[in-house]
Amino acid sequence: MEPGLGEARLDDEVVMQLMWAMPGGGGAGALPIVQAHGGESGHGSHQLSAVWTCPRQWWLRYRRLMLLVKENGWRMSGTLIHLALSYRYAAMMEQVPAWVHEKSLDEELEHDAEGLGDAGKARETIATVRDVMREYTWKYEGEPWVPVAVEEQISMRLGDMREARAGEDKSLDDVVVTCRPDLVVRCPDGLLRLVDHKTTSDAHWRDKDMLPDWPEDGGSYRVPWQMMLYLWIARHHMGQAEISGFVINRIKRTKGWKSGRYDMDRHELRIPVTFYEKVPEIVRATVAREREVERAVERGEKPIGLPWACHGPFGPCDYVDWCTAPTNRHRGALLGQPVLKDDDEELPEQKYKIVKRAA
Ligand code: SF4
Protein backbone atom coordinates (compact mmCIF):
# COMPACT_ATOMS: atom_id res chain seq x y z
CA MET A 1 0.00 0.00 0.00
CA GLU A 2 1.37 3.38 -0.89
CA PRO A 3 1.64 5.77 2.03
CA GLY A 4 -0.72 8.65 2.31
CA LEU A 5 -3.57 6.71 0.74
CA GLY A 6 -5.42 6.14 3.96
CA GLU A 7 -4.60 2.54 4.95
CA ALA A 8 -1.81 2.06 7.48
CA ARG A 9 -0.27 -1.38 7.86
CA LEU A 10 0.15 -2.84 11.30
CA ASP A 11 3.92 -2.88 10.71
CA ASP A 12 3.89 0.83 10.11
CA GLU A 13 1.95 1.46 13.29
CA VAL A 14 4.54 -0.42 15.31
CA VAL A 15 7.33 1.53 13.68
CA MET A 16 5.52 4.81 14.30
CA GLN A 17 5.01 4.00 17.98
CA LEU A 18 8.73 3.38 18.27
CA MET A 19 9.34 6.74 16.69
CA TRP A 20 7.36 8.59 19.32
CA ALA A 21 9.85 7.31 21.87
CA MET A 22 12.84 8.51 19.89
CA PRO A 23 14.98 11.47 20.85
CA GLY A 24 15.29 14.48 18.59
CA GLY A 25 11.96 16.18 19.15
CA GLY A 26 11.46 19.82 19.92
CA GLY A 27 8.42 22.04 20.00
CA ALA A 28 6.22 22.11 16.94
CA GLY A 29 6.85 25.11 14.75
CA ALA A 30 7.48 26.35 11.25
CA LEU A 31 10.44 25.03 9.28
CA PRO A 32 13.25 27.55 9.72
CA ILE A 33 14.36 28.08 6.15
CA VAL A 34 18.05 28.76 5.83
CA GLN A 35 18.10 28.67 2.09
CA ALA A 36 15.49 27.48 -0.34
CA HIS A 37 15.62 25.70 -3.68
CA GLY A 38 19.16 24.93 -4.75
CA GLY A 39 22.53 26.28 -3.67
CA GLU A 40 25.27 24.91 -1.45
CA SER A 41 24.10 22.83 1.43
CA GLY A 42 27.10 23.08 3.79
CA HIS A 43 27.54 19.97 5.92
CA GLY A 44 24.88 17.98 4.10
CA SER A 45 24.33 14.24 4.33
CA HIS A 46 26.23 13.42 1.11
CA GLN A 47 29.26 15.38 2.24
CA LEU A 48 29.21 13.71 5.63
CA SER A 49 29.22 10.19 4.27
CA ALA A 50 31.83 11.00 1.57
CA VAL A 51 34.68 11.44 4.05
CA TRP A 52 34.26 7.82 5.12
CA THR A 53 33.79 6.55 1.57
CA CYS A 54 37.11 8.00 0.43
CA PRO A 55 38.91 10.96 2.07
CA ARG A 56 40.40 12.01 -1.29
CA GLN A 57 36.99 11.99 -2.98
CA TRP A 58 35.62 14.11 -0.13
CA TRP A 59 38.48 16.58 -0.35
CA LEU A 60 38.37 16.91 -4.14
CA ARG A 61 34.60 17.38 -4.17
CA TYR A 62 33.94 19.43 -1.05
CA ARG A 63 37.19 21.26 -0.34
CA ARG A 64 38.91 21.60 -3.70
CA LEU A 65 35.50 22.00 -5.41
CA MET A 66 36.67 20.06 -8.44
CA LEU A 67 33.70 19.04 -10.60
CA LEU A 68 33.14 17.33 -13.93
CA VAL A 69 33.04 19.67 -16.92
CA LYS A 70 30.33 17.51 -18.52
CA GLU A 71 27.75 16.10 -16.15
CA ASN A 72 26.98 12.41 -16.30
CA GLY A 73 23.79 11.72 -18.35
CA TRP A 74 21.76 9.59 -15.94
CA ARG A 75 22.61 11.88 -13.02
CA MET A 76 21.45 14.88 -15.04
CA SER A 77 18.12 13.15 -15.85
CA GLY A 78 17.61 12.61 -12.14
CA THR A 79 18.47 16.22 -11.34
CA LEU A 80 16.04 17.53 -13.94
CA ILE A 81 13.21 15.25 -12.79
CA HIS A 82 13.79 16.51 -9.23
CA LEU A 83 13.61 20.05 -10.57
CA ALA A 84 10.33 19.42 -12.40
CA LEU A 85 8.86 17.76 -9.29
CA SER A 86 9.88 20.73 -7.17
CA TYR A 87 7.93 23.06 -9.48
CA ARG A 88 4.93 20.73 -9.49
CA TYR A 89 4.67 20.60 -5.70
CA ALA A 90 5.62 24.26 -5.13
CA ALA A 91 2.75 25.28 -7.42
CA MET A 92 0.37 23.19 -5.27
CA MET A 93 1.35 24.94 -2.01
CA GLU A 94 -1.03 27.27 -0.24
CA GLN A 95 1.63 29.97 -0.41
CA VAL A 96 3.53 29.45 -3.63
CA PRO A 97 7.25 30.17 -3.01
CA ALA A 98 8.68 33.26 -4.74
CA TRP A 99 11.28 31.28 -6.72
CA VAL A 100 8.53 29.69 -8.82
CA HIS A 101 7.82 33.12 -10.32
CA GLU A 102 11.45 34.19 -10.65
CA LYS A 103 12.36 31.69 -13.36
CA SER A 104 10.10 29.33 -15.29
CA LEU A 105 10.60 25.56 -15.19
CA ASP A 106 11.51 25.59 -18.89
CA GLU A 107 14.24 28.16 -18.31
CA GLU A 108 15.61 26.21 -15.36
CA LEU A 109 15.60 22.93 -17.31
CA GLU A 110 17.40 24.47 -20.25
CA HIS A 111 19.96 26.17 -18.02
CA ASP A 112 20.76 23.04 -16.00
CA ALA A 113 20.82 20.72 -19.03
CA GLU A 114 23.64 22.83 -20.48
CA GLY A 115 25.80 21.00 -17.92
CA LEU A 116 25.69 17.97 -20.26
CA GLY A 117 27.88 19.89 -22.70
CA ASP A 118 25.91 18.58 -25.70
CA ALA A 119 22.89 20.48 -27.07
CA GLY A 120 21.33 17.37 -28.67
CA LYS A 121 21.58 15.33 -25.49
CA ALA A 122 20.20 18.28 -23.51
CA ARG A 123 17.10 18.49 -25.75
CA GLU A 124 16.56 14.74 -25.53
CA THR A 125 16.90 14.74 -21.75
CA ILE A 126 14.45 17.63 -21.34
CA ALA A 127 11.95 15.84 -23.60
CA THR A 128 12.25 12.74 -21.40
CA VAL A 129 11.67 14.82 -18.28
CA ARG A 130 8.50 16.29 -19.81
CA ASP A 131 7.31 12.74 -20.62
CA VAL A 132 7.97 11.62 -17.06
CA MET A 133 6.05 14.55 -15.66
CA ARG A 134 3.06 13.96 -17.96
CA GLU A 135 2.85 10.39 -16.76
CA TYR A 136 3.46 11.34 -13.12
CA THR A 137 0.60 13.86 -13.29
CA TRP A 138 -1.65 11.23 -14.81
CA LYS A 139 -0.74 8.57 -12.24
CA TYR A 140 -1.11 10.84 -9.23
CA GLU A 141 -4.21 12.68 -10.35
CA GLY A 142 -6.09 13.38 -7.12
CA GLU A 143 -2.77 13.54 -5.30
CA PRO A 144 -3.24 12.55 -1.63
CA TRP A 145 -0.28 14.65 -0.50
CA VAL A 146 -0.62 18.30 0.48
CA PRO A 147 2.83 19.87 0.07
CA VAL A 148 3.98 22.10 2.93
CA ALA A 149 7.65 22.60 1.99
CA VAL A 150 9.62 22.04 -1.21
CA GLU A 151 13.42 21.74 -1.11
CA GLU A 152 13.68 23.98 1.93
CA GLN A 153 17.00 23.76 3.67
CA ILE A 154 16.95 23.25 7.40
CA SER A 155 19.88 23.05 9.73
CA MET A 156 20.99 22.15 13.22
CA ARG A 157 24.09 22.83 15.36
CA LEU A 158 25.98 19.76 16.41
CA GLY A 159 25.87 21.04 19.98
CA ASP A 160 22.06 21.04 19.80
CA MET A 161 22.10 17.38 18.81
CA ARG A 162 24.39 16.55 21.67
CA GLU A 163 26.89 18.79 23.49
CA ALA A 164 30.56 17.85 23.62
CA ARG A 165 31.41 15.62 26.54
CA ALA A 166 34.50 16.04 28.71
CA GLY A 167 37.62 15.47 26.62
CA GLU A 168 35.81 15.96 23.28
CA ASP A 169 36.49 18.81 20.87
CA LYS A 170 34.11 21.57 22.04
CA SER A 171 34.59 23.56 18.83
CA LEU A 172 32.58 20.92 16.97
CA ASP A 173 29.44 22.07 18.84
CA ASP A 174 29.16 25.06 16.49
CA VAL A 175 29.40 23.06 13.28
CA VAL A 176 26.09 23.31 11.42
CA VAL A 177 24.61 20.28 9.71
CA THR A 178 22.09 20.91 6.96
CA CYS A 179 19.57 18.96 4.98
CA ARG A 180 17.16 19.76 2.21
CA PRO A 181 14.35 17.21 1.96
CA ASP A 182 12.90 17.07 -1.56
CA LEU A 183 9.43 17.54 -0.13
CA VAL A 184 7.47 17.71 3.12
CA VAL A 185 3.82 16.71 2.79
CA ARG A 186 0.76 16.44 4.96
CA CYS A 187 -0.88 13.06 4.45
CA PRO A 188 -4.56 12.11 4.78
CA ASP A 189 -3.87 10.88 8.36
CA GLY A 190 -3.04 14.49 9.28
CA LEU A 191 0.67 13.83 9.87
CA LEU A 192 3.68 15.14 8.00
CA ARG A 193 6.12 12.99 6.09
CA LEU A 194 9.42 13.81 4.48
CA VAL A 195 9.63 12.62 0.88
CA ASP A 196 12.70 11.68 -1.15
CA HIS A 197 12.31 11.33 -4.93
CA LYS A 198 14.35 8.44 -6.29
CA THR A 199 14.83 8.38 -10.03
CA THR A 200 17.15 5.40 -10.18
CA SER A 201 16.93 2.02 -8.60
CA ASP A 202 19.77 -0.36 -7.75
CA ALA A 203 22.28 -0.66 -10.57
CA HIS A 204 21.34 -4.31 -10.98
CA TRP A 205 17.89 -3.16 -12.12
CA ARG A 206 18.93 -0.16 -14.12
CA ASP A 207 18.64 -1.93 -17.48
CA LYS A 208 15.49 -3.87 -16.64
CA ASP A 209 12.04 -2.80 -17.74
CA MET A 210 10.46 -2.05 -14.43
CA LEU A 211 11.04 -1.16 -10.82
CA PRO A 212 12.06 -4.07 -8.63
CA ASP A 213 9.46 -5.13 -6.09
CA TRP A 214 9.90 -3.26 -2.85
CA PRO A 215 11.66 -5.72 -0.54
CA GLU A 216 9.79 -6.67 2.65
CA ASP A 217 12.73 -5.65 4.81
CA GLY A 218 13.39 -2.40 2.91
CA GLY A 219 16.43 -3.78 1.04
CA SER A 220 19.02 -1.06 0.47
CA TYR A 221 16.80 1.31 2.48
CA ARG A 222 16.95 -0.88 5.58
CA VAL A 223 19.43 1.51 7.19
CA PRO A 224 18.71 4.77 5.38
CA TRP A 225 21.43 7.09 6.70
CA GLN A 226 20.38 10.20 4.81
CA MET A 227 16.73 9.83 5.86
CA MET A 228 17.63 9.27 9.51
CA LEU A 229 19.64 12.49 9.55
CA TYR A 230 16.85 14.43 7.81
CA LEU A 231 14.29 13.13 10.31
CA TRP A 232 16.50 14.11 13.22
CA ILE A 233 16.87 17.69 12.00
CA ALA A 234 13.24 18.10 10.88
CA ARG A 235 11.91 16.75 14.16
CA HIS A 236 14.15 19.11 16.10
CA HIS A 237 12.39 22.01 14.39
CA MET A 238 8.86 20.72 13.99
CA GLY A 239 8.35 18.20 16.77
CA GLN A 240 8.44 14.46 16.40
CA ALA A 241 4.71 14.05 16.90
CA GLU A 242 4.18 16.09 13.71
CA ILE A 243 6.55 14.16 11.45
CA SER A 244 5.66 10.52 11.33
CA GLY A 245 8.32 9.27 8.93
CA PHE A 246 9.95 9.16 5.55
CA VAL A 247 8.59 8.16 2.14
CA ILE A 248 10.57 7.10 -0.94
CA ASN A 249 8.86 8.24 -4.14
CA ARG A 250 10.28 6.01 -6.91
CA ILE A 251 10.22 6.84 -10.61
CA LYS A 252 11.81 4.65 -13.25
CA ARG A 253 11.79 4.72 -17.02
CA THR A 254 10.54 1.47 -18.56
CA LYS A 255 11.03 -0.18 -21.92
CA GLY A 256 9.01 -2.57 -24.00
CA TRP A 257 5.76 -4.21 -23.17
CA LYS A 258 4.39 -2.29 -20.22
CA SER A 259 1.39 -0.04 -20.87
CA GLY A 260 3.03 2.97 -19.30
CA ARG A 261 6.57 3.94 -20.10
CA TYR A 262 7.44 4.67 -16.50
CA ASP A 263 7.12 2.77 -13.28
CA MET A 264 6.26 4.75 -10.18
CA ASP A 265 5.46 3.85 -6.60
CA ARG A 266 5.78 5.11 -3.04
CA HIS A 267 6.98 3.38 0.09
CA GLU A 268 7.22 4.38 3.72
CA LEU A 269 10.55 3.56 5.33
CA ARG A 270 11.02 1.80 8.60
CA ILE A 271 13.66 3.66 10.52
CA PRO A 272 15.81 1.38 12.71
CA VAL A 273 15.74 2.81 16.22
CA THR A 274 19.19 1.49 17.11
CA PHE A 275 20.85 3.57 14.37
CA TYR A 276 18.49 6.54 14.67
CA GLU A 277 19.45 7.04 18.31
CA LYS A 278 23.10 7.21 17.29
CA VAL A 279 22.74 9.96 14.66
CA PRO A 280 24.40 12.65 16.86
CA GLU A 281 27.35 10.32 17.57
CA ILE A 282 27.73 9.43 13.90
CA VAL A 283 27.66 13.08 12.79
CA ARG A 284 30.13 14.17 15.48
CA ALA A 285 32.59 11.38 14.63
CA THR A 286 32.30 12.25 10.94
CA VAL A 287 32.96 15.97 11.37
CA ALA A 288 35.95 15.07 13.57
CA ARG A 289 37.21 12.87 10.72
CA GLU A 290 36.83 15.76 8.26
CA ARG A 291 38.94 17.93 10.57
CA GLU A 292 41.66 15.24 10.64
CA VAL A 293 41.80 15.15 6.84
CA GLU A 294 41.95 18.97 6.69
CA ARG A 295 44.79 19.03 9.21
CA ALA A 296 46.69 16.42 7.17
CA VAL A 297 46.34 18.57 4.03
CA GLU A 298 47.57 21.62 5.96
CA ARG A 299 50.65 19.61 6.91
CA GLY A 300 51.26 19.05 3.20
CA GLU A 301 49.98 15.48 3.02
CA LYS A 302 47.70 14.29 0.25
CA PRO A 303 44.33 12.94 1.38
CA ILE A 304 44.45 9.19 1.10
CA GLY A 305 42.51 7.57 -1.76
CA LEU A 306 40.76 4.28 -1.01
CA PRO A 307 40.81 2.03 -4.09
CA TRP A 308 37.86 -0.12 -3.02
CA ALA A 309 35.65 2.98 -3.34
CA CYS A 310 36.65 3.68 -6.97
CA HIS A 311 33.84 1.59 -8.45
CA GLY A 312 30.46 1.75 -6.71
CA PRO A 313 27.02 0.33 -7.55
CA PHE A 314 26.34 3.29 -9.86
CA GLY A 315 29.61 3.10 -11.77
CA PRO A 316 33.07 4.59 -11.34
CA CYS A 317 33.87 7.48 -9.03
CA ASP A 318 34.00 10.82 -10.88
CA TYR A 319 37.70 11.12 -10.02
CA VAL A 320 39.00 7.83 -11.45
CA ASP A 321 40.75 9.61 -14.33
CA TRP A 322 42.34 12.04 -11.90
CA CYS A 323 43.52 9.38 -9.49
CA THR A 324 44.91 7.12 -12.21
CA ALA A 325 46.61 9.90 -14.22
CA PRO A 326 50.25 8.82 -14.63
CA THR A 327 51.90 12.28 -14.51
CA ASN A 328 51.31 15.84 -13.38
CA ARG A 329 51.10 16.80 -17.05
CA HIS A 330 48.15 14.47 -17.44
CA ARG A 331 46.50 16.00 -14.38
CA GLY A 332 47.13 19.50 -15.75
CA ALA A 333 45.48 18.50 -19.04
CA LEU A 334 42.51 17.00 -17.17
CA LEU A 335 42.06 20.42 -15.56
CA GLY A 336 42.31 22.19 -18.92
CA GLN A 337 45.60 23.88 -18.02
CA PRO A 338 48.21 24.68 -20.66
CA VAL A 339 50.90 22.01 -20.32
CA LEU A 340 54.23 21.44 -21.95
CA LYS A 341 54.19 18.02 -23.53
CA ASP A 342 56.82 15.78 -25.02
CA ASP A 343 56.65 14.96 -28.71
CA ASP A 344 54.17 12.16 -29.43
CA GLU A 345 52.76 12.37 -25.95
CA GLU A 346 49.02 11.92 -25.87
CA LEU A 347 47.29 13.90 -23.20
CA PRO A 348 43.64 13.64 -22.14
CA GLU A 349 41.01 16.29 -22.82
CA GLN A 350 39.82 18.56 -20.05
CA LYS A 351 37.49 16.64 -17.77
CA TYR A 352 37.41 18.72 -14.57
CA LYS A 353 36.95 22.31 -13.55
CA ILE A 354 37.48 24.05 -10.23
CA VAL A 355 34.45 26.08 -9.21
CA LYS A 356 34.37 28.99 -6.79
CA ARG A 357 32.49 28.63 -3.53
CA ALA A 358 29.28 30.66 -3.48
CA ALA A 359 29.74 33.89 -1.51
S1 SF4 B 1 38.92 7.39 -7.77
FE1 SF4 B 1 39.04 6.09 -5.93
S2 SF4 B 1 40.75 6.90 -4.75
FE2 SF4 B 1 40.19 8.45 -6.26
S3 SF4 B 1 38.81 9.82 -5.22
FE3 SF4 B 1 37.55 8.29 -6.24
S4 SF4 B 1 37.23 6.69 -4.74
FE4 SF4 B 1 38.95 7.92 -4.00
> Might you state the CATH topology name of the domain at 10-69 and 145-293?
Lambda Exonuclease, Chain A
Question: Quick one: overall form?
Answer: globular
Q: Strand count, sense and closure of the main sheet? A: 5 strands, mixed
Strand content: 15-25%
Look at the structure and give the mean pLDDT. 82
Strand order of the biggest β-sheet: 3-6-7-8-9
Q: Stretches where pLDDT falls below 50 for ≥5 residues?
A: 1-41
**SSE order, as H and E?**
HEHHEHHHHEEHEEEHEEHHEEHHE
Assign the CATH architecture of the domain at 10-69 and 145-293.
Answer: Alpha-Beta Complex
For the record, give the distance between the C-alpha atoms at the N and C termini, rounded to a whole number: 45 Å
Structural class by sheet pairing and helices: alpha+beta
Q: Report Rg.
A: 22 Å
Portion of residues within helices: 25-40%
What ligand molecules are bound, each kind once?
iron/sulfur cluster
Count every helix, treating DSSP H or I runs of 4 or more residues as helices.
Answer: 13
